[in-house]
Amino acid sequence: MEKSFKHNVTLHKDGTYSMGISINYGYMTPDELIALANIAKKYNVTTCMATTAKKISFMDVKEDDVNKIWDEIDETFGERLSYPHGKIVVCPGLEYCKFALAGRDNKKIAKMVEEISLKHNAGKIKVGVTSCPLGCAMPRIKDLGIFGTPYGWSVVIGGNAGAHTTIAQPVADKLSDEELYQLLDKIYQYFEDNRTGKERTVSTIKRLGFEHFKAQVLGE
After folding, report:
1. pLDDT tier at 3 (50, 70, 90 boundaries)?
2. What is the pTM assigned to this prediction?
3. Sequence ranges of the chain with CATH classification 3.90.480.10
4. 204 near 125, Cβ under 8 Å?
5. What is the signed CA dihedral for 101, 115, 71, 33, rounded to 10 degrees?
6. Are strands 126-130 and 87-90 parallel, antiparallel or unpaired?
7. By three-state DSSP, how is residue 72 classified?
8. Disulfide-capable partner of 145 in 61, 111, 156, 180 (CB 3.0 to 4.6 Å)?
């Protein structure tokens, strides 16, 4: 019988597991990188990988070590960790990028998305959040994309970077932080109510139609 794990892991063909560790959406100090490496070495993890979701994955973890490692990760990094339902990617943002727009705090919005995702059972929703329209977190090919403009936040839905590449469709723009929160909550509720099985957003929208999505979420 498969063990119960504290957080999400992926089983590999050789019976080991990978663990995707998200520390502040990819922002780490050198000391934190060293602490993470020391945990990996303690449990004989031989390969670590920087993922497209800006996580550090431990790639060959033994089953009996998974929860032990999660306990040490939680104890070491605490509130800097994020465990959303799905994946959240952010751009360099206000701290580092000259193109980031004042008032468009991507980390604040990422925390908002994480909070909303944990309220819902909406499946695997990949999210990109950027502080300007250039979209370095690739919001237009994510299930859910959020990007800042001079007039507020814009939201797009239904992107996909897989075998059937799809550009996300515009949902709303010129949103305040509070308006964005309310819209995102409705979007997650929509997919919780309407997806079938492990269906991704683009498949749900294709099956039901974008007009159905707008009617349910926007009241149009």
Report:
1. confident
2. 0.91
3. 10-80
4. no
5. -10
6. parallel
7. helix
8. 156
